[in-house]
Amino acid sequence: MTGRISWVTALAGVMIWSWAAAEPPCPSHDTEASKAEAAELKAEVPALTAFHEVIFPLWHEAWPEKDTAQMKELLPRVREHVKAVSEAELPGILRDKKPAWDEGLGRLQADLAAYETAAAADDQAGLMDAVESLHTDFEKQVRVVRPVMKELDAYHVELYKIYHRYLPAKDLASLREASVALSDRCGVLSEAPSPDWFADKADTLAAEVGVLCERTRALRAASAGEEWEPAAAAVEAVHDQYRRVEALFD
């Protein structure tokens, strides 16, 4: 009788294990993975966005009024935010911006050092200069992160997946599908007006975007075939031209 019970117990254990193994992945895991992917593809650094909470009163209240008392009062918060921004990681889609980001971090840290020195010496002129420099360099850091055109950013999101995922993996099927989406996004980009502040270079931008879309169509055609090398070469050509378009805004 004991042997039979043991056999039944073992069989039940196998059935439970099989049922558990057949269970679909936990939805929360899928959600976490989706969130991680969305964060990787979003051109944003939350720590930099949060920094604006103290930059605003510093620049729009304390500085115009030459209120050194408020500047000193805000210094600990500035110190915390510079530390947080310095420790923040760029999302994957901004990996090409890291040299400019690191250079900007150096400027912010130098601004903070000047701010602290002026505050310790109760140096009004030094505080005014340090706060002005901090505000300027904060704005520069924001421009490193912020897309100059939403249509160009949308194009880059698709190109990022192609260049950093499908190209290294030699995933022709995914590349083929993504190249269609990339072509559609280039169509939207080609019809988008240039930013108002970039009006004097609008013709240059239009010409370079035209080349980008031409290369994007060539990528779509190359990836429709079965050979990997032509498709890979077309990806590199598209990526090089995208960098040319992006550099126009530097």
Rounded average pLDDT = 87
Please count the beta strands (DSSP E, at least 2 residues each): 0
Report the sheet-strand fraction. under 5%
Structural class: mainly alpha
Percent helix range = over 70%
Helix-strand sequence: HHHHHHHHHH
How many strands, what sense, and barrel or not for the largest sheet?
none
CATH class of the largest domain: Mainly Alpha
Count of helix runs: 10
The gross shape turns out to be elongated
Q: How many structural domains can be distinguished in the coordinates? A: 2
**What oligomeric state do the depicted chains represent?**
single chain
* N- to C-terminal distance: 82 Å
Which CATH architecture of the largest domain?
Up-down Bundle
Low-confidence stretches: 1-24
Over the alpha carbons, how many angstroms does the gyration radius reach? 26 Å
- According to CATH, the fold-level topology of the largest domain is Four Helix Bundle (Hemerythrin (Met), subunit A)
